[in-house]
Specification:
CATH class of the largest domain: Alpha Beta
Shape: globular
Number of domains: 2
Number of helices: 7
Largest sheet: 5 strands, antiparallel
Strand content: 25-35%
Helix content: 10-25%
């Protein structure tokens, strides 16, 4: 149970996502400026494994490869037999650990890697309507998902905002501005405002609050009304006050998760936005409509996710950190501690 293996991933295993997996669309926001260079340690403890368990399966996050993010020198320390798996739809990768006869107790997993992360800059060009071929190729980016449905109320508001807006960028900006102007990010007043905990478009629409998952679910639901493909990106914010902190006892310092969004503007390509960061810092409202900053690492794409190999339980609302099953049922006895340090 405690045997570990340390090795670097073979050269060429990294997956570069120039757009969305499987859609053939390659236009992309270009990297800009000087990248953040960082060493990242992602450490997990799986504990409270029940006596008598017959099978344990666990999936751990791995950083994605995309134009804004380059990952090198990735090393894994995990129970013997671990392997890298990837899904066929989103291009996500997982560190997969299967233990057929686990002993009660604890095991640890550690992933380290070197990260280069660039600021995004939107691609040049003017937007236009989707072609029939693009709409077919990007059907998955226009599909509804649990908690991201386009309800009649959301559709009515989206149509109202889009009326008179010329072009896809103008419509997207109307949705972006409306969410920021009409919702309050929950951390501004945590005693009275709460996130849904589910990344719910309806919750954000009705409650006028939420966190990053709620904000971006609402944007996706509105964008769908005017045939704007979107993709959800889940990752972790690399908080500047944790730069160089090797470990911490206070679990509130764990950077947890942060999400952002990509929107496909036909004729231009994929453009990144961060609506919740814009709401927290209104001085950067214009910036975060078509840029994202460097202090983050992306770990997965999409909502309503099947892992690889597929989990026994239902699809995951999103994937971040890890997911563990014991005898086919979700096991929540685990913790993560992500630390990082900038590298000159």
């Amino acid at each position: 149970m405690r045997h570990t293996l340390l090795r670097a991933l073979p050269a060429g295993l990294a997956l570069t996502l120039l757009g969305c997996a499987g859609d053939g669309i390659i236009e992309e926001s270009r990297p800009e400026g000087t990248p953040l260079r960082a060493s990242v340690r992602d450490a997990f403890v799986v504990k409270d494994i029940p006596a008598g368990a017959k099978k344990l399966r666990a999936w751990f996050e791995l950083p994605v490869e995309e134009p804004l993010q380059r990952v090198t020198d990735l090393k894994v320390k995990a129970p013997e037999g671990w392997r890298i798996e990837s899904d066929a739809t989103e291009g996500n990768r997982f560190l997969y650990v299967a233990i057929p006869d686990p002993k009660a107790g604890t095991f640890e997993v550690e992933v380290t890697f070197e990260l280069e992360r660039w600021e995004s800059a939107p691609p040049a060009g003017a937007g236009r309507a989707l072609t029939a071929e693009e709409k077919e190729a990007l059907a998955a980016r226009l599909a509804e998902f649990p908690y991201g449905e386009t309800t009649p109320k959301i559709r009515e508001k989206a149509n109202e905002l889009a009326a008179g807006a010329e072009g896809p960028e103008a419509r997207a900006r109307k949705f972006y501005d409306w969410i920021i102007d009409n919702a309050e990010y929950w951390k501004k007043d945590p005693e009275h405002l709460k996130p849904s905990g589910k990344g719910s478009a309806t919750y954000c629409m009705d409650s006028k609050t939420g966190n990053c998952t709620d904000y971006h679910a609402l944007f996706q639901a509105m964008a769908r009304v005017v045939d704007l493909p979107t993709q959800f990106v889940m990752g972790t914010a690399l908080k500047k006050d944790l730069d160089g902190v090797e470990s911490f006892d206070d679990p509130t310092k764990e950077p947890s998760y942060h999400c952002w969004i990509r929107t496909y503007f036909p004729g231009r390509g994929w453009v990144y936005s961060d609506i919740s960061y814009a709401d927290v810092d209104l001085s950067k409202k214009d910036y975060y409509f078509d840029h994202i900053d460097v202090n983050r690492v992306a770990f997965s794409h999409g909502r309503n996710i099947d892992l690889a190999p597929k989990q026994d339980g239902p699809k995951l609302n999103w994937f971040i950190k890890c997911y563990v099953e014991v005898d086919g049922k979700e096991h929540t006895g685990w913790s993560r501690q992500l630390t990082w340090r900038s590298v000159k």
